[in-house]
Design a protein that fits this description.
Largest sheet: 5 strands, antiparallel
Radius of gyration: 32 Å
Strand order of the largest sheet: 1-2-3-5-4
Order of helices and strands: EEEHEEHHEEEEHHHH
Distance between the termini: 115 Å
Structural class: alpha+beta
CATH architecture of the largest domain: Orthogonal Bundle
Number of strands: 9
Number of helices: 7
CATH superfamily of the largest domain: Transferase(Phosphotransferase) domain 1
CATH class of the largest domain: Mainly Alpha
CATH topology of the largest domain: Transferase(Phosphotransferase), domain 1
Length: 305
Amino acid sequence: MPSPFLDLCGNSIPQEQVLGCGSSAVVVLRDGLAVKTPLRYRWSSDVEVEMNIEVIQREQDVYRRFQTSNAQCGGIVNCVGFLREATQLAYMTNGNLRTYLGTNQPSQQLQLSWFRDMARTLEYIHDRRVLVADIASRNFLLDSDLKIKFCDFSEASLLPLDADMDTVDDNGYTTRIDLGFLGAVIYEVVTGEKCEIDLFKDNLPSDGRATWPQRELLPNTENVWLGSIIEDCWVDGGFQNAHSLLRALDSIALHSPSPKPLYDRPSLTGFYFIQNLVYKRSIVTMAVILGALGTLALYRNRKQL
């Protein structure tokens, strides 16, 4: 089946070059780079393509905001270059997090490392006065060392640099919603179950304002590892910002199980059973010999008398 995607010149994009696609862009592998171009299907109208070009350009403005920061952040996929109608990004060899979780079970140590990097990067993003708005496992990429990176800012809000992030509200989108989405990603990684969140479930069709869902509509976190942290991402009165989330994650200590005593190890159980049996029999044998010697000595003493 031919690829449904076309480049802006109308040429078919080979399916083997396609790394992924979203609602407004398709990402293709070119010359070792992941190139994000406006989504164009064979049946797309010129108006639709132009709207997707505008989304690409708005996202480029977000990347430029990050690049002008004095403190660069390693938790965002590296933006290599800008074209008017495409963004060149570093290629992440291990793909997106959701696909990775489909075939791999990361250790708790690796998971905790990811969560701390996510929170640290979100703290940086908010410090640069950006709301991500679309945080999901499909929008995190893994490099060759399994380091995790934010990669999609097509839905992001680029706010004034003097905005108060504790109170900012962009049509319902807030830092709390970013934290809530990040809590959903943590839940998905820990449990292996997707946690889809609909911010418009209870809204009128004419109301485009985002609203965080009521707690009872979200999964139960009882007996889930890091469940209390996930809860504080989801409820009022929980984490105030990404910094408080990071502080909570930094307080988590992973303890390796204590090594079992040698005699409890299956490979050595038989050996120590035999050794113990021989030892016990040796004591019994020695007791019998000493008893016999004592009886003989008593008999000789009586005979001499």
